[in-house]
């Protein structure tokens, strides 16, 4: 590898894409095309970056499988950062296998980290955890090691393991500082601040307050009966009853829990759960049926007793009852939560991450755009969505330090 390619690779590894382009911008050989593609990705021109990387892979040809595989890994990261979650994950798996077969364990480890990061984005935590367990983080360069630890922290946060998340973020901060990439340092700091921010709201005895993640973790480990509107379950420290597929029962449980220690009237229960503003005997009969079903589901935690006015929860052992809800509740809160990472999402990627239909997601995005909560970029199939950026918390593209043809 000649001196210009070496210098350009070092510039990219230190987060200086313009310095890299100054050295290889006029060259069209395969290594230069790969470096130009990664530089364009760091500058935010994802479409141009993908084109250059594909040209580079073709130029390397079948005789250089390792270099081609490195190009695939770089393209996979671009797809991940552009939130192109439909990008074929099997191509990344094949590239990882090629790199491992030829002894390039550093780039193979980076490919494994990318696979875990994608699984985290789409909510497959167990698969992401298994993918990370197969990696040796010591093989990763500092920038990729920071990204690895961010994935570890992301899994821990979603599993409400705050100490694990904090330890991972400390390691990510150290790795980012070692890499010397300022945007990466800012991304880690942003994640740390998010960990210290409100994670949920607690509703108990008619009062509300915000909880941090540590407080949510402590609450769920206590003996309190929690109606969890974040995950649509009813739980205590030892038992969880999932009601995500039974929205009427969950709405009844939440209404009763918000009213506790008092009872909830039949009209309140009908309005919240059955969504009936004007009721007749058929609605009241349905309420009795649904309350009976709720009793059966929650018999391990509590009784549901009838009163003159309606119904009341009577927890076993005289335990307290609380309701845990997201910090912000609105119609499209899940979309806003995904868009809040500052990246540009396609509607198809949002649909994959949410497990919803693309048309449902598009309607939600259109409503957010009208309200000024989201903004589209591009047209047709190239359209992407994002929220207005928050000053001071830039995100960055984490690209592998070992570059094609090294």
Mind explaining what this structure looks like?
The protein has two domains: 3-196, Tetratricopeptide repeat domain (Serine Threonine Protein Phosphatase 5, Tetratricopeptide repeat, Alpha Horseshoe), CATH 1.25.40; 201-325, Arc Repressor Mutant, subunit A, CATH 1.10.10. A hairpin with a 4-residue loop joins strand 4 (233-235) and strand 5. The protein is α+β, with helices and mostly antiparallel strands. The protein has a six-stranded mixed β-sheet with strand order 2-1-9-3-4-5. Helix 17 packs across helix 18. It is elongated, with a radius of gyration of 25 Å. Helix content is 56%, strand content 11%. The chain has helices at residues 3-13, 17-24, 30-42, 46-60, 65-81, 89-101, 105-121, 125-133, 142-158, 162-179, 182-196, 213-221, 247-259, 266-274, 281-297, 333-339, 347-354, 358-370; strands at residues 200-204, 207-211, 225-228, 233-235, 240-242, 264-265, 302-306, 310-315, 321-325, 375-377, 384-386.
Concise structural overview:
This protein is α+β, with helices and mostly antiparallel strands and 406 residues long. It has 18 helices and eleven strands.
Features:
single chain, 406 residues, alpha+beta, Serine Threonine Protein Phosphatase 5, Tetratricopeptide repeat, 2 domains, six-stranded mixed beta sheet, three-stranded antiparallel beta sheet, disordered C terminus
Q: Please provide the ordered H/E string of secondary-structure elements.
A: HHHHHHHHHHHEEHEEEHEHHEEEHHHEE
Spatial strand order of the main sheet: 2-1-9-3-4-5
Protein structure class:
alpha+beta
End-to-end gap: 7 Å
* Total count of domains: 2
User: Do you know the CATH architecture of the largest domain?
Assistant: Alpha Horseshoe
Helical amount among residues, as a percent range?
55-70%
Number of strands: 11
Number of alpha- plus pi-helical segments: 18
Report low-confidence residues grouped into runs of 5 or more. Answer: 389-406
**How is the main sheet built?**
6 strands, mixed
Global shape: elongated
Radius of gyration: 25 Å
Return the average pLDDT rounded to an integer: 84
Q: What is the CATH superfamily of the largest domain?
A: Tetratricopeptide repeat domain
The percentage of residues in β strands lies in 5-15%
Could you please say which CATH topology of the largest domain applies here?
Serine Threonine Protein Phosphatase 5, Tetratricopeptide repeat
CATH class of the largest domain: Mainly Alpha
